[in-house]
Amino acid sequence: MGQSKSQKIIGQDAFELFYSGVFNARWEKLRASLFQEPVYAELSYKNCESYFLDPASIVAALCLPVENSKRILDLCAAPGGKTLVLAGLKGEDSVLFSNEKSPSRKARLLKVVSSSLPSEISCGVKVSLSDGACWCRHETECYGSILLDAPCSSERHVLNDSKYLSQWTPSRIRTVSMEQWALLSCAFRLLEKGGYLLYATCALCPQENDMALFKLKKKFQDARLVPADEVRDIFLANVKAEKAEIACPAGHSLEEFFSLAEKTEVGFHLLPDKAMGAGPLYFSLIQKTPDVS
């Protein structure tokens, strides 16, 4: 007899079946790269504690334009690496709101901000504890630049944890996608007219990446998906403007890592099998189009 619906495949077999279907012949090599030791870049400010993070995360954060924004929001900020990048780009008179939902992760975020930023920059960073998906109930269109590094399926961690891998089913993606949509739609409502929102995940599956942006575009007619060439120009300008010192692994440059980001339909994907170990990290830039008078 055939397998009943109540006996659906779960665990490692289901995981392998799903992602081999997404990446086809590439999956074996990509899967192997997810078991390798992650690579780290060193971000530092003079006389402050260095912070080590995936160079893909730095590349993504540097694709958000903040120079003209008085209010900047990092909506799901812990552990804090992207906040440090944004802090090095913001103007002296602007405020960076760095938010986290979890009390323990917020405590870690606060420690990173206080130890890795000089006082003249950290005084313009406000750390908060809040559910980012609920912010738009209290205020709207009040941030010029928003970074949303959304919680995701984090397949690299699943693969490296036998407990989570044994419990994996495709329903995990559906559940996480719903949480991401609540955050993404809220973040877009918080964005000023003409402002920019950078959406990022460390997920592999398109449901949590490009498909989230397709849904945003369908829901909000004033959502403009910023073309790849424009994103590249923003990135290059921000690399020059960044106040922090950033040392990439093995003497590579941020420009090299950006060049290895694979273009998707509406974003970029840095995957470790082709990006010198960086990633996985997906990102896409969205602008809320200004009113035309």
Structure, explained:
The protein has 293 residues and is an alpha/beta fold. Helix content is 39%, strand content 20%. The strands form two sheets. Strands 3, 4, 5, 6, 7, 8, 10, 11 and 12 form a nine-stranded mixed beta sheet that branches. Strands 2-1-9 form a three-stranded antiparallel beta sheet. β3 (71-74), α4 and β4 (95-100) form a beta-alpha-beta unit. The radius of gyration is 19 Å and the shape is globular.
Secondary structure elements and their pairing?
Elements: H1 11-23, H2 27-33, E1 41-44, E2 51-53, H3 55-61, E3 71-74, H4 81-87, E4 95-100, H5 103-116, H6 119-122, E5 125-129, E6 143-149, H7 155-159, H8 162-167, H9 171-190, E7 191-201, H10 210-219, E8 223-225, H11 228-241, E9 245-247, H12 254-259, E10 262-263, E11 268-270, E12 281-288
Helix pairs in contact: 3-4
